[in-house]
Amino acid sequence: MASFHEKDGVRYLSFEIFGDDVIHGVFTRRGGVSPSPWHSLNVGGTVGDVPERVRENRLRAFATLGRDPASLFDVWQVHSARAVHADAPRPPETPHHKADIILTDRPEVTLFMRFADCVPILLYDARKGVVGLAHAGWLGTVRGAAQAAVRAMREQYGSHPADIVAAIGPSIGPDHYEVGQDVVAQVRGAFGNEAGGLLHARDGRVHFDLWEANRLQLEREGVEKIEVARICTACHLEDWYSHRAEKGRTGRFGALIALRG
Question: Cys-Cys crosslink for 136: which of 140, 144, 207, 211, Cβ 3.0 to 4.6 Å?
Answer without folding.
Answer: 140
